[in-house]
TrEMBL record:
UniProt keywords, alphabetically: Cell membrane, Membrane, Transmembrane, Transmembrane helix
Residue ranges annotated for the Integral membrane bound transporter domain, each copy included: 351-474
UniProt name for this protein: FUSC family protein
Source species of the chain: Amycolatopsis plumensis
Domain of life: Bacteria
InterPro entries: Memb_transporter_dom (IPR049453)
Length: 655
């Protein structure tokens, strides 16, 4: 297995939930968050009115919460859209705040719109969340006694400031994010080939897949918005495309249990440094004397190919009306978006009603908690509710205690800087960490216009608990299908992607179009497997049947990855003195993968399928048989929906 399987005897969902992602601290994002949020407070305090600085820094918060790594053009669209949506939501909340007859239906309507537009993509989803969050926050701003137009002006000023901070270095750094992404591919190649342990090499291969996906996404996104002078982006994209044969050969070597010479690893490190510095690429190392095996020969040929570059057809930008039509089609094609919108709207409406009934100051925090936790497409509802509860309880205690103890002046500015940096770290490490820092920051921003007291501590804690209870009870426990296992379909999709890769990789690519199709099929298969792993990591945090089923499927995910690696090992040797497999054998492999996908999708035991007995495909066949054994394994009943468990019990008695 490529990932350790959680221990069923332990609360695996809790371990997975509290686990922090082992990623480096994004110091550039930390610095931008500190400058965007703390500088307005510092300037306003120096000018004699820190409350104004708090209102301005509130406008900077949408961009900080929506920040992500990537090309400047991508970040400009993401942050600009989120800030614009937050501004619209804030204005709606300001205009209706203080009048429950207007504010309650406005918040409910914004929640529904927020959920629906999430189907348009990741950027639209982030924008929808910011619109809901700041609409809810604005409904409580009438308590400040400041005029609506003044509050809105401060918010817009903070929003403009945060966008300036986020994008200020665009003119001098230009293609730096894209160069970093391409260089990271070579770093991960060197790490994978340097690993001496199988488990470590598997993790390195996963990181290489992520690096490849990230680099392609960033470059294709950047180029799709360029109209003319795109020579730098085109060069990087050609370089990345030319690296594909070396990536395939490296994966094949690792899968075969072999390692290249140190000069190959050093060459990948040198390539990374050259790309980062924008310098000419170093020459590849010479081929070792003698007659190397086909996989090693493919690796050295791949190194030569990197130096020669590659050429790709220009990607045409997708017109805005086509993207709008695709989004409208996604809304009409299935009920998932509407179900998510209904759940969010219902729970937000319940939170608004509870907020009116609970005699707590500024109880809009209940609705805020519900909206953030239950927002669609951000992972497990159960997991986010628990992490939000833990993080917010900690954060509320910190933030409210700061106000209650009467901290002021530069102490508040310094604490705001710390909280801002913590938000940037939490975004990439753990949602609970992010909640623990964003909560006291919002409390400071919302409370600087008033005198803090210890009653705020109890109010914020009660509001947070009530919001999490509404989500867990009405959005999770009582919501139809929320705990139903639903992971088999994703596994089947991954198997179909691997089958497509088999049909392209195990034939001789005699033309440039065929080689490009094979490269795309390989990327599609490994991207599908990476997405599958991410989806299951989100699912295992649930203690319900859904989480137990995800745990039971882990061996099948690992088996899919091993099949793809074995196919890569065979594919890189074709055309280098090794003929392609018999087409009939390739059809047997794709048919077996199709049957395995159908069995997973239909939650049944797979039928026995004929497999090739050619020596060339023995590694692929061995891994495919392991995949069949994993599906038929002792966890089969755990994977099936509860109503189908009895159907599989006779098989378990046989085994």
């Amino acid at each position: 297995m490529s990932t350790p399987r959680p221990d069923l005897a332990a609360p695996h969902w809790l371990v997975q939930l509290l686990r922090s992602s082992p990623v480096p601290v994004p110091w550039n994002m930390v610095a931008r968050a500190v400058v965007a949020l703390a500088v307005p407070l510092a300037i306003a305090y120096a000018a004699g009115d820190i409350a104004v600085g708090a209102l301005i820094s509130t406008g900077a918060l949408p961009a900080v919460l929506s920040e992500s790594a990537g090309p400047y053009r991508y970040r400009a669209r993401r942050l600009g859209g989120a800030t614009l949506a937050a501004t619209a939501g804030y204005l709606a909340g300001l205009l209706t705040g203080g009048t429950p007859a207007l504010s309650v239906p406005t918040v409910v309507l914004v929640a529904a719109v927020s959920a629906v537009i999430s189907a348009a993509g990741s950027n639209a989803s982030v924008a929808g969340l910011q619109m809901l969050v700041f609409c809810v926050l604005a409904t409580g701003q009438h308590a400040t006694g400041v005029r609506v137009e003044v509050l809105f002006g401060y918010f817009c000023l903070g929003a403009a400031w945060s966008l300036l901070v986020a994008l200020a270095t665009w003119t001098v750094r230009a293609t730096s994010p894209e160069r970093t992404a391409v260089a990271h591919v070579y770093v991960e190649l060197a790490a994978m080939l340097s690993a001496t342990d199988e488990a470590v090499s598997r993790v390195a291969r996963h990181r290489l897949t992520t690096a490849m996906n990230t680099a392609y996404d960033q470059l294709l996104t950047a180029r799709s918005w360029l109209s003319g002078r795109d020579a730098a982006y085109r060069h990087l994209l050609n370089l990345l495309s030319a690296t594909t044969p070396a990536v395939e050969a490296s994966v094949a070597m690792v899968n075969a249990g072999r390692r290249p010479g140190r000069e190959v690893i050093d060459h990948f490190v040198a390539l990374s440094a050259a790309v980062l510095a924008g310098q000419p690429l170093p020459p590849p190392p010479p081929v070792p004397p003698g007659d190397p095996d086909p996989v090693l020969a493919a690796l050295y040929a791949g190194l030569v190919r990197i130096g020669k570059g590659d050429d790709r057809k220009r990607r045409e930008p997708t017109p805005w009306h086509r993207r709008l039509r695709e989004w409208a089609g996604s809304l009409a094609s299935g009920p998932l978006t509407w179900i998510a919108a209904l759940r969010l709207t219902l729970c937000v409406a319940l939170a608004e009603v509870v907020g009116l009934l609970v005699p707590l100051e500024r109880s809009y925090w209940i609705t805020l908690t519900v909206g953030i936790v239950l927002k669609p497409d951000f992972g497990s509802v159960f997991g986010r509710a628990v992490l939000r509860g833990i993080g917010t309880v900690i954060g509320v205690g910190i933030g409210a205690a700061v106000l209650g103890l009467g901290a002021n002046g530069w102490v508040l500015v310094g604490l705001s800087a710390v909280f801002a940096g913590g938000i940037a770290v939490g975004k990439v490490r753990n949602y609970g960490i992010q909640s623990a820092f964003v909560t006291p920051l919002i409390i400071l921003q919302m409370g600087l216009a008033h005198t803090g007291n210890w009653s705020v501590v109890l109010a914020r804690l009660v509001d947070t608990v009530l919001g999490c209870v509404i989500v867990l009870v009405f959005g999770y426990l009582l919501w139809p299908g929320s705990r139903r296992p639903r992971v088999g379909g994703r596994l089947a999709d991954g198997l179909h992607a691997v089958a497509k890769y088999v049909s392209h990789a195990l034939v001789e690519a005699s033309s440039g179009e065929a080689r490009l199709a094979r490269s795309r099929a390989r990327r599609g298969a490994y991207r599908a497997l990476a997405d599958l792993r991410t989806a299951f990591q989100q699912a295992v945090v649930e203690p319900s049947a859904h989480g137990r089923q995800a745990v039971a499927w882990w061996p099948v995910i690992a088996a899919q990855e091993r099949v793809a690696d074995a196919v890569t090992e065979v594919g890189v040797t074709i055309g280098r003195g090794v003929p392609p497999p018999d087409p009939a054998d390739v059809e047997l492999l794709t048919a077996a993968l199709g049957e395995l996908a159908a069995a997973v999708r239909e939650q049944r035991e797979p039928r026995s399928m004929p497999l090739p007995d050619a020596e060339q495909l023995s590694g692929v066949v061995d891994q495919l048989e392991s995949a069949f054994d994993a599906v038929r394994g002792p966890d089969l009943a755990e994977r099936a929906p509860l109503g189908l468990v009895r159907r599989f019990l006779p098989y378990h008695r046989r085994t």
